[in-house]
Design brief:
about 425 residues, alpha/beta, four-stranded parallel beta sheet, two-stranded antiparallel sheet, 16 helices, about 45% helix
Amino acid sequence: MAQKHDLLDDIIDIQRNWDELSHPLNGIADQLTLDPSQVKVFDAADYKVRPRANSIFCVNCTTKNPDACHLCMDVCPVDAITVRGQSVKVAENCRKCGLCPTVCPTEVFSCSSQQPLSIYNTIAGKANKFEKCYVTCTRALRRLPQENEVLLPCVGAIAPETWFALLCEYPNLEVYLPMGICDRCRTVTGELAYGDAIAQAEEWSGETVGLEVDQKAMDHEESRAYKRSQFVSNVTTATTQLVTRGNHALAGAQAVAQRLQEHSQQITKLQRALEKSAGTQNSQSRRHILTQRRKLVLGALQKYPDLAEGMKVRVPQWDSTRCTMCGDCVKACPVHANDLDAEGHFSFEPAYCVGCDACAIACKDGALTMVETDAKDLVIPDEDAIRRKHEAEERKKKAKELTQKGKKALEKGLDALEKLDDSDDAQKSND
């Protein structure tokens, strides 16, 4: 339902229209006076980064099996990725499309500007400010992006876990891709990659990503809440008062920054809680590794734990009758999520396990198989919330005890008054 336009909205509109009328040539003047060499022009190469590979996390390398995993090679549109022995190489003919980091479950590939947490923060920052936030590719836009447009080498560069975390918080996300863009793109695997990623995220979250195909229909309006809070901030600043003192609402930009900071702090707090409950390493002194994509999932599930029931994850299932306690499964795990204790019992930490199959592939005796289960074990208890709940229950219990004591004291006092009244009546009768 649309929100009713009130007086504050009218004032904001008047101010913005007045600014445009007062400075009609402001933008043009800036462009005319600017050094031509400093004028930014659209260049698709500015949004593309060649990924770096770290073979330490590669399933093929840890299992010493060249056929263990081939997701990155399958998705690469130009066959630029090779895995030989203990090395992963990205050739010079790489299109820098960002698809290999998206499909790799153990995050072997990394791009500075296209890390899952970086993409999340970029999109979330824009989704917080605008009515719509558009995710698109360089080929679809072919111009410098506006403030609420997120430009990527390919929409497939966003992993399903990142989409999931975003959809849990922001219903105003849309993909902008005109008809025919993907059909003629040389990144031939991109359309299938982003289709699968979005479909997976929509299934997990129960939300949907919008699709816009007409550039003229794109909405670049700032959201009502952002405009109102930003206006109040400007008014407050003009009267030389701190916004946090003069008004309970934070400034628009400040509120966006704070929300992103809170999300980052929540993830850090989750990781610390996880390390406290599961430890920082297994019995072989191998440190547990929490991938960025798993961090995003854990953060979303802690806030919306009910979604875990409909979210399926792959985990290893152990058959003790087949296990020879060789320890190959522990050595093969790229994120060090599993363990084999001195008694020969296999275990794994669900929050760290990314379902890469490395342990099952490394087990030559068939003691491990990968099975699907719901993600309830990924819901990390909030210790502060539990503590607050416990304290509230203790206060309630104490208040109840005090109430009972007060009630007994009151009843005792009333009994004493009744006895005193009876004795007075008896005295009067004797008199």
